[in-house]
Known about the structure:
- This protein is α/β, with parallel strands linked by helices and 288 residues long.
- It has one domain (2-286): 3-Layer(aba) Sandwich (Rossmann fold), CATH 3.40.50.
- It is 40% helix and 13% strand.
- It contains 12 helices and 7 strands.
- A 7-stranded mixed β-sheet has the order 1-3-2-4-5-6-7, with helices on both faces.
- Helix 6 (138-148) links the parallel strand 4 and strand 5.
- Helix 5 (106-123) packs across helix 6 (138-148) and helix 9 (200-206) runs parallel beside helix 10 (208-217).
- The longest helix is centred in the middle third of the chain and has 18 residues, at 106-123.
- The termini are far apart.
Amino acid sequence: MENKFLEKKLLRPFMVAVTGIIFGGCSTAPMDNLLTIEGKTNVMQQVMAQKDKIIWLSSQEIRRDKPVLLLLHGATDDPTEMLEIYKEWRWKYNVCLYSYNFHRSIKKVAADLAGEMKILQAENNPNENVTVITFSYSAIVFRMAVIIADDPALFSNVTLIQLVPTAGGSFVARGMGFPVVASLVFPFSKPSVAENPYGSLAKKLWDGEGNRKFYEAINPARMRTILLEGDPNSLADVKDEEVHRRYESGIGTNVIIIPKSLGVTHEYFPTNSIGLEYLRKLLEPNAK
């Protein structure tokens, strides 16, 4: 019923705004003032060049006395949106970034992440916790990586923090549930396909067997989600019961909601001082 209602109500504006769906995401403006990291002027060039790789930011070698912090940026070609987090925690964590090409299919990006996690875990002390921070679209990337990984134990020591995840898909991409819109967008925007809350991929990622696999690998007690009240990208208020169930499975049970009155926005969350203060409360207990 919900899908039919949306088709009547929303098909026309989605056809008009189809290019907005194609290029929609959670990208932020470049942070040109952060192009130098610890005096290494070429670090960000390396980050931008090495797509689909985990890149060490705080040190070339892992410091055995520090836990690992892995950052996953959103649907953007500019991963510097995560560098405010790096700047604050580089002395207390081994900070690394998974720099990926979000224009590729979600399965290919996730498969590369799973392969990179094997390397990361081999370098890391197996008894040491790895904290993963996802932002917006990368919650989907990480979830897919966990589900398709050959060895679920690869993620058994992971503490997951999700920043405004588009769990279950994105409200912005709900028009992908209409065949005409999907046929127009599919050739151009892999992220829109991944964000479709009504598609087969949503069911695979956030429901049934996929959901079971994810929570077998990721301890729900070690998963935290920070949301924004009234987030226009969120499916929180969608009435469709299946979509809402997938949304709830994606955000988990340990949820913090930032009031709308504080003025934090989805797009700029990783650089917002209030958003970072909420994140700080989650990271500090594991820092060294």
